[in-house]
C-alpha cells in the first residue's frame, strides 16, 4: 500500500536570496557611479540664480558713493567803459537803447543779463584802460559778448574788454561815488533831455546810487 503524499506549506528557501540581492545590486551600482568620472554631471545655473546675482550687483552700485559734482566754472563778463559824463549825460541814444532792450526782455520773460556799473571795482584789473579814463567811469557789463561788441561799435568812444568772475556780485561790485551833471544852458534838440538818474533801473540789484 502506497503512503499518501504530503504537501509542505513552508516558504521556499530559493526566494530569500532574491529579496536580498536587490540592495547589493544597488550598492554596487552606487560604487561604480562614484568611481566613474563620467558619472558626475554639471548643470547650468538656473535662471533665478542669475537674477539674484544681478540684484546683488545693483544693490552694491546703489550703495556706492556718488561721483563728486563738477566744479563750477567762472562766468565771463564783457564790458564797454567810458567816463560817466559821456555814458550818462552826453550820449543821447544810450538810454533809449537800454530801455528798449529791457522792455524786450520783459516781454519775452528773459532774465536781465546787462547792467550799468558806476566806478566798477574790476577796473583795477585793467591798468591800461584806467590810465586812459576820466573819472568817475561807468561800464556797461553783460554776459552777452556779441551784444557788447555791437554796443562798442555803436557808442564808438568807449573801451572794451572782458574778465571772469566767480559770482555776479563780484563782477558788478563798485566803489561809491556821487554823480552830478550840470544842465546845459541851451538845449537845441527837438526832444527833451533825459532827466538825471535815468540809469537807476539798469544798476546792479540792491543798488540805488551806483554802489553795489
From TrEMBL:
A Pfam family matched in the record: Ycf54
Gene3D superfamilies for this protein: Uncharacterised protein family Ycf54
What InterPro entries does this protein's entry cite? Ycf54, Ycf54-like_sf
Question: So which domain of life are we looking at?
Answer: Eukaryota
Q: Which family does it belong to?
A: Belongs to the ycf54 family.
Can you name this protein? Uncharacterized protein
Amino acid at each position: 500500500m502506497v503512503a499518501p503524499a504530503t504537501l509542505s506549506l513552508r516558504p521556499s528557501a530559493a526566494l530569500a536570496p532574491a529579496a536580498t540581492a536587490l540592495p547589493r545590486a544597488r550598492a554596487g551600482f552606487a560604487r561604480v557611479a562614484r568611481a566613474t568620472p563620467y558619472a558626475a554631471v554639471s548643470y547650468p545655473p538656473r535662471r533665478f540664480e542669475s537674477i539674484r546675482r544681478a540684484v546683488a550687483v545693483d544693490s552694491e552700485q546703489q550703495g556706492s558713493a556718488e561721483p563728486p559734482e563738477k566744479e563750477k566754472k567762472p562766468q565771463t563778463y564783457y564790458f564797454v567803459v567810458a567816463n560817466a559824463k559821456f555814458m550818462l549825460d552826453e550820449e543821447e541814444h544810450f538810454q533809449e537803447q537800454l530801455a528798449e532792450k529791457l522792455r524786450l526782455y520783459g516781454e519775452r520773460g528773459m532774465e536781465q543779463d546787462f547792467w550799468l556799473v558806476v566806478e566798477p571795482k574790476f577796473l583795477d584789473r585793467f591798468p591800461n584802460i584806467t590810465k586812459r579814463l576820466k573819472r568817475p567811469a561807468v561800464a556797461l557789463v553783460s554776459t552777452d559778448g556779441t551784444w557788447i561788441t555791437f554796443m562798442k561799435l555803436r557808442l564808438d568812444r568807449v573801451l572794451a574788454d572782458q574778465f571772469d568772475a566767480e559770482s555776479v556780485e563780484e563782477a558788478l561790485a563798485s566803489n561809491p561815488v556821487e554823480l552830478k551833471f550840470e544842465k546845459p544852458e541851451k538845449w537845441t534838440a527837438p526832444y527833451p533831455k533825459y532827466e538825471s538818474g535815468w540809469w537807476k533801473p539798469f544798476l546792479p540789484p540792491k543798488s540805488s546810487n551806483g554802489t553795489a
